[in-house]
Amino acid sequence: MKKFLNDFKYLTHVIFHPFDGFYEVRFRGMGNYALVAIIFLLSGLLNVVAYQYTGFIMNNNPLYGMNSVTTFIFGLFPYLLFAISNWSMTAIFEGSGKFLDILTVLAYALFPKLITDLVVIIFSNVVTAEEAMILTAIQMIGLVWFCFLVFSGLCVIHEYGAGRNLAMIVATFVAAIVIIFLATLYVTLVEKALTFFTDFATEFARR
Amino acid sequence: MKKRIITFVLALAFSLILFVQAVPVMAEHTKDASYIYDFWGNANQSLSAFQLATVIDGNSMGDGLDLSSVKDVFVYNNEEIYIVDSVAGRVNIFDTEFNFLSSIRIIRNEEGKIVVSEETNKQMLLSSPEGVYVTDECIYIADTGNDRVLVLERDTHALVREITKPATMVGDSLFKPSKIAVDHSGRIFIVVQNSTEGIIELNSDGSFSRYYGVNSPTVNLLDYFWRSIASDEQKETMAKVYAPAFSNLHVDHEGFVYAVTLDTASKEMVFRFNSNGENVLRKFGYSEQLGDLPAPMDDSFAMSTFTDVAVNDFGVYAILDTVKNRVFVYNFDGNLLSIFGGAGSTKGTFSNPTSIAWMGNDLIIGDENLSSAFVFKTTDFGDLILAAEEKYYTGDFEAAAMLYQDAVDMNANYDHAYVSIGKNLLMQDDYEQSMYYFRLGNDKTYYSTAFMGYRNLIIQKYFIVFAVVVLAFIWWVISGEIKYNKQQRKLEEL
Which of A57, A62, A126 sits opposite B444 (nearest CB)? Predict the structure, then answer.
């Protein structure tokens, strides 16, 4: 428990000093996988909360069609996809980060975004349409912060230079598209095969 | 024993309720199920606002005459109905009880003699006319087959003048007047079908003034890309993008020209032109005035195309769609009020609708294939919503809000009424109630205004609490500073 608290304290250091911080996390054992899991869980939950409890003025979601489980899963799915495709690309191109390291970077980078999102959700209930712009700005700050932390974190854990890292991130997005394409293909084919067998079975049973 | 019997009867009664089927909402006297689009673009059940009352067809005509097709319907001042029969080459006139009054086919002059053309030495006849417009003095007939507009006196039907292609007319458009409208100052607006240059505007003396109204096509991004890299020779072989043509027009009581188009490549489908020819149609509804909205995952969806528009005195306009043969009724602000009609050959549906016109609160819809004009009267719900729009348009917001409330009581899916009720409550500074209604009507802008008022009230009420919190915060900052300074000074002294 004490280690957990210590690591959490270190997380608050990492988000302000990403290069040093992620180095310590990656190579000196200052990271904490329990913390990673909790942050991802909270992020997914916050997605669900944001869907319903963002104030009416800023909420563009059709509440009548809300599904907490899908919102939760689709909130976390992009991170998992990014981690998988980044890992599969960097593993080929001499990146030294492990899969869990990439997840750690993503989770640690999510922490400030978690806080700004929470602030936005709370204050969106007490603002008018004109003041909503301030909250959008806060949201943007969280997003930019997140992107910067991911970028610097990936630099550190893969031991890449900035240019190489940028190229790898672009490659990651391409890989993500390929993964989605293959997944869709697989699902469609399996579905076709299954329909064939069920059709065959029904045909056989009715003879 | 008696108690047991009562229990048994009650149980039986309640169990019977289980077998009662849910009945879809319907207006009185009609079995049409209507629908309306909400904020999210979902088609929700709604009440029918219009129902078929009377049919004007060959049987309504005078002896020996028949109605062969209905190309245009015009209602003059809620007194006379003009129906253009392009096959028979007639303009038939009915009174408001749908009794046949007279018919124009052979043109006569003031002395009652048949006009004979000097060049061809033939009688002056209408040849497949497609449009008619009536002012207090004159009847304007778009005599399409003869490429001219005939102006007749309204009382005697005597020829006043004949407007042929003006000598000064520029552009590639043929002078084949199809639809016609005249504003208060006598300017004549003419729609030529498939003309890409706009509406032809003539001065009251029949001389050419200008092309009126701009209609811009949407440009496909992919086409734009190919065009940008194509050579000049290649460009010549490519299909040209033309400005979409207008199909019909109507002048409202303020002199604005409403127009519609059949071309789905057009950026907008309904237009309200000011005197500069700019589209000033108000678009404050949940969606743009596009008729049917695409349902998600609907591959067979086709955009509505419009063949006629009718505007009444309080800005409610109906547009006639030719894809699903439906009528869409919008109010002045662009809120969808009602949808009715449909394709088919049953009562209340159309085969090839060509024209629509208001007569009071009734709508008259002409059908070319069925050779009849259908008169739709309002249902109780329709009466209510039109009355509400009239009150709202004339600025009687309180009466309008009451009527909107009645409408909502009848039809909870009539969403834009919630916003109107909310606006009225907002004007009375009833912030909390108006917020409730804006939320129901999904209007974020007005909700924000109401919320600002509500928030101010809260802050005023709990001013002490807010003041204490703010003061405490300031004190915390200042005292922190003082403490810090003291510490620094101590450190310096050491």
Answer: A57
Q: Which of A128, A131, A134 to mutate to test the interface with B (most CBs of B within 10 A)?
A: A128
pLDDT, tens digit, 9 for 90 and up, residues A46-96: 999 999 999 999 998 998 889 999 999 999 999 999 999 999 999 998 888
Could you give the number of structural domains in chain A? 1
Q: Which residue of A has its CA nearest to B442?
A: A56
* CB within 8 Å: A128 and B449: yes
Give how far B268 is from chain A: nearest CA, Å. 25
Domain ranges of chain B: 50-379, 415-461, 467-494
Neighbours of A90 (CB within 10 A): 26
Q: Residue B181 has what DSSP assignment? A: E
Identify residue A11 by its one-letter amino acid code. Answer: L
pLDDT tens-place string over residues A85-123: 999 999 998 888 899 999 999 999 999 999 999 999 999
Answer yes or no: are the C-beta atoms of B260 and B291 closer than 8 Å.
no
Structural domain harbouring A119: 2-206
- Greatest alpha-carbon span in chain B: 124
Is the minimum CB–CB distance between B451 and chain A shorter than 8 Å? yes
Q: What is the reported pTM?
A: 0.83
Closest CA to B152 of B202, B112, B203, B192: B112
Q: What is the DSSP string of A17-82?
A: SHHHHHHHHHHSS---HHHHHHHHHHHHHHHHHHHHHS-TTT--S-GGG--HHHHHHHHHHHHHHH
**B56, B35 Cβ separation under 8 angstroms:** no
Q: Which CATH superfamily is B50-379 part of?
A: TolB, C-terminal domain (2.120.10.30)
Is residue B40 within 8 angstroms of chain A, CB to CB?
yes
Q: How many CA atoms lie within 13 A of B222 on its CB side?
A: 0
> B338-345 contacts: CB < 8 A, separation 24 or more?
B338/B34, B338/B36, B338/B46, B338/B48, B338/B49, B338/B50, B338/B382, B338/B385, B339/B34, B339/B35, B339/B36, B339/B46, B340/B32, B340/B34, B340/B48, B340/B49, B340/B50, B340/B376, B341/B365, B345/B370
